Amino acid sequence: MAQERASLDDAYQVYDLGDGVYWVGFADRHAGFSNNPYLLICGNEAVLIDPGSILHYHVVAKKVLQVVKPEQITTIIVQHQDPDLCASIPKFEALIEHPIRVIVPHRADLFMPYYGVTSELHVPEDRDAIVIGGRRLEFHATPYVHFAYAIMTWDPMSRTLFSSDVYGAIATHWRLFADKQYVEDTRTFIEPYIDSQAAWLYAIERTRALKPRRICPQHGSIIDRDIDEYLDAVAKFHVGTLLPPKARDGAS
After folding, report:
1. Tens-digit pLDDT profile for residues 64-120
2. What does the pLDDT look like over 127-178, one tens digit per residue?
3. Over the chain, what HEC string results?
4. Number of C-beta neighbours around residue 106 at 10 A
5. Separation between Cα atoms, residue 8 and residue 55, nearest integer Å
6. Of these four, 26, 61, 95, 222, which has the most CB atoms within 10 Å of its CB?
7. Where do the domains of the chain lie?
8. pLDDT tens for each residue of 199-245
9. What is the predicted pLDDT for the residue at 45?
10. Rounded Cα–Cα distance for residues 115 and 36 (Å)
């Protein structure tokens, strides 16, 4: 990696994770809600994965342009339709200034025009794969985590799983790489947000089958150590229980 691990708390740098994978995200420590777009170099081409929100576009675009030229970006992958993942796509379309393809799950494609996306949309089936610049990427369904047709993107070459909201976290003490606290950070995000225990365990099962060396969620921290132990811990979460509403001021 281009940086020492000890320095990876600076949210304003691009981080080379190795194998042509770059973190180009933004950590909002005040909100505790980091946004983690990733840039993947595929030969002479580049892929943006979950490129992020309007709010953080200027930061993400600045980082992307430190690594590639706009004309190298040929593909944007959107793993579900939330605005924090994909609202910035029209701005990237304007920056790139040439036709690109946007890969988006079934039913999430219906939302893209509402963000102003004009690129050609490609909707993969579960376990479909594409080859970009000689690099194979696969799409794995994680239904109802949290969107009905949500997907994860698997890069066999680097054994990196881009998991989107799966294994995301909320933490004001954000670090790029997960530490021992990360299980509890994940619990804070996942337990009130995912509504089906069966769906959560299915997503974990799909992850185990891939045997990733690195998990890159769209929120929270990158998990690249003790992955089996981490998956064992998060499999014990009690999802599907709504949090009680906050009591109003003065309510008994």
Report:
1. 999 999 999 999 999 999 999 999 999 999 999 899 999 999 999 999 999 999 999
2. 999 999 999 999 999 999 999 999 999 999 999 999 999 999 988 888 899 9
3. CCCCHHHCCCCCCCEEEECCEEECCECCCCCCCCECCEEEEECCEEEEECCCCCCCHHHHHHHHHHHCCHHHEEEEECCCCCHHHHCCHHHHHHHHCCCCEEECCCCHHHHHHHHCCCCEEECCCCCCEEEECCEEEEEEECCCCCCCCCEEEEECCCCEEEEECCCCCCCCCCCCECCCCHHHHHHHHHCCCCCCHHHHHHHHHHHHHHCCCEEEECCCCEECCCHHHHHHHHCCCCCCCCCCCCCCCCCC
4. 14
5. 22
6. 222
7. 5-234
8. 999 999 999 999 999 999 999 999 999 999 999 999 999 998 766 65
9. 97
10. 19
pLDDT at 143: 96
Tracing tokens 């994965």 back to the chain, one arrives at 49
